[in-house]
Amino acid sequence: KADDTLLEVNNIEVIYNHVILVLKGVSLKVPKGGITALLGGNGAGKSTTLKAISGLLASERGEITKGSIQYHGESTQNRSPNDLVRGGIIQVMEGRHCFEHLTIEENLMTGAYTRSAAEAKAGLEMVYTYFPRLRERRKSQAGYTSGGEQQMCAIGRALMSKPETVLLDEPSMGLAPQLVEEIFSIVKNLNEQEGVSFLLAEQNTNVALRYAHYGYILESGRIVMDGDAADLRENPDVKEFYLGVG
Ligand code: ATP
C-alpha cells in the first residue's frame, strides 16, 4: 500500500558539528494510521533520526548532508519545527521535558499554541479522556508528579497540537513495567480511535514490538533489518540480540 505512506525518509546522512557522522544512509516509511517502531541500542541513532524528521537537529548543530525526507510527498527540509507542527508532525522528546513549575494543565495548554481557544478546550478534554491520570493531577505542579505522569504530560502536550503524526522518543525510559504498558496501551488507543500515526524510538524492543505494526532496527547509524512486528518478534536474530532470548 505505497500510497498510504505519510512520511518517507530516503537514505539520509546526518553529521553533528560538521564532523561526527551519525546516520549513514537511513531509509524508512511511516504509513498513515500505523504505529512504526524504530529500534536499536544506546547511541544507534534513533533520536537523531526523529530530530532529523521534526526539524530539531539544527538546534543541536546537526545537519542532514545527504538524502531527503518527505511528508505527504513534500520535502521537510528548510521547514522549521514550528512549521512542521502546523503541518501535523510533532516530536515528544526523550526525557519528558515538562515545565516543572507549571501545573499539568498549564503544561498541556502550552502545547496548544497553534490552536484557537475553543480548539484548545476540546483538545484538553480529548487528552483527559485518554489520560485519566492527567485529569486527576491537572492542578498539580508537574515537578511534583511521578515520572510516568510527566511522560504522559509530555505526550498529552504534543496531542494538544492535534497532530497527524507523533514522533515519540523512548516513552518507556525510566518507567516501571506496569506504567510502560499503560502508556503503550494509550498510544494504541490514540492510534486506533483518533487515527494518530506514530513513529516511536525504543530500546525496549519487547514492548515496542507488541504494540507496533512494523519495525526498523537501527545499528550504528544504519537500518539492519525491518519487517512486520509479528515477524520481527519471531525472528531468531531479533530474539537473540534484542529480545534477550537465546
Ligand atoms: P539514546 O537512546 O542513547 O539516545 P539513540 O539511538 O537515540 O540512543 P542518538 O541520541 O541519536 O542515539 O545518538 C547517536 C550518536 O550521535 C551517539 O554516538 C551520540 O553520542 C551522537 N550524538 C547525539 N547528539 C549529538 C550532538 N548534539 N552532538 C554530537 N554528537 C551527538
From the helix content, strand content and strand pairing, which structural class follows?
Answer: alpha/beta
Q: In percent terms, what proportion of residues is strand?
A: 25-35%
Describe the main β-sheet briefly.
6 strands, mixed
Mean pLDDT: 94
Q: How many individual helices?
A: 10
What is the β-strand count? Answer: 10
Distance between the termini: 34 Å
Low-confidence stretches at least 5 residues in length (pLDDT < 50)? none
Report helical residue fraction: 25-40%
Write a structural description.
This protein has 246 residues and is of the alpha/beta class. The protein is built from ten helices and ten strands. The protein has helices at 46-54, 81-86, 104-110, 117-130, 132-136, 147-159, 177-194, 205-211, 229-234, 236-241, and strands at 5-16, 20-31, 35-39, 62-71, 74-75, 89-92, 165-169, 197-202, 214-219, 222-228. β4 (62-71) and β5 form a beta hairpin. α3 packs parallel to α6. Bound molecules: adenosine-5'-triphosphate (ATP). InterPro entries: AAA+_ATPase, ABC_transporter-like_ATP-bd, BCAA_Transport_ATP-bd_LivF, P-loop_NTPase.
Outline:
The strands form two sheets. A six-stranded mixed sheet has the order 6-7-8-3-9-10, sandwiched between helices. The protein has a four-stranded antiparallel sheet with strand order 2-1-4-5, covered by helices on one side. 37% of the residues lie in helices and 28% in strands. The protein has ten helices and ten strands.
How are the secondary structure elements laid out?
Blueprint: E1 5-16, E2 20-31, E3 35-39, H1 46-54, E4 62-71, E5 74-75, H2 81-86, E6 89-92, H3 104-110, H4 117-130, H5 132-136, H6 147-159, E7 165-169, H7 177-194, E8 197-202, H8 205-211, E9 214-219, E10 222-228, H9 229-234, H10 236-241
